[in-house]
Structure formats: structure tokens, C-alpha cells
């Protein structure tokens, strides 16, 4: 087989294009990294226009914990005084969709119940997410942004 300069150059360019494509995949922003999303619990710290419960005095902070066992991806946590669980889907470009949440309906103070209803509805309006360091930002279709901070996950019993 005889190689011409043209055929060598075509092969070189094809290899270079493949390598650049792989490098682009490896350098995607952390917003598209499901492992970063599932590695910690996320505590709600900012939601413009809403009073954020901080825990204490019988209430717990609002927490999101993402899990993905390969077969089912779900997010669970506390929506102030009630626990919840919902399926989620990640797609390219940091896109995130959270499905309908199932939550217990423990009676809570009116303010807590209003917050929980708004919070769980808002989760279903999400379009995308971004992780920067230990901060998670969730973006809704209307442009509203919710900010959460990373917290260690409790150790699982062996």
C-alpha cells in the first residue's frame, strides 16, 4: 500500500478531529456532571421572594439529595416539614427535569404548607442546573433561580 502526502494528511486531520471531539467531552462544565449532583446533599440557601426555613425549632432545612443507581434516578429530601421523592432526568447541556413529587402530608403550620406547595411545584418547572464549586443553581423556565449549598451525605450503614 502506497501512502501519498494527501492520504496521510487526511488521516492526520481525521485523528485530530476525533481527539478534539474527545477533549470537548472531557471538558464539559460541571453542570452536566451527574456525579457531582449525586455526591452530596444540597441545602436550599436562596430563593428570591421566599423566606427560606433554616431548621431549628422543630423544623429542618430544605434538603435535596439526588440518587442515580443506573436504573432509576430520583431526588428526595425535605420540603420544610415533609419528606418527598421524585424522579429526575439529566440531559446534555446541564438540562434537568424533575417529575411529580410524592410527599407525606404531615400537618404543618400554614406558612410551611404554603412554602412546600410552592417549592414542590417549582421543582417541576426546572429546565437546567449548574454546579460551581460547592454551589448548585437550579434554573426555571421563567428565569427564576434557586441556590443550594453542598452538605456532606450521611454515611450509609454497612
Architecture overview:
This protein is α+β, with helices and mostly antiparallel strands. The chain has a single domain, classed as Lipocalin, CATH 2.40.128.270. Helices cover 26% and strands 34% of the residues. The chain contains 3 helices and 9 strands. The chain has helices at residues 5-26, 34-38, 110-123; strands at 41-46, 63-68, 73-78, 83-91, 95-98, 102-103, 126-132, 135-140, 145-151. Strands 1, 2, 3, 4, 5, 6, 7, 8 and 9 form a 9-stranded antiparallel sheet that branches. The chain starts with a helix and ends in a 7-residue tail after the last strand. Residues 12-32 have low confidence and may be disordered.
List the defining traits of the structure above.
158 residues; alpha+beta; Lipocalin; 9-stranded antiparallel beta sheet; 3 helices
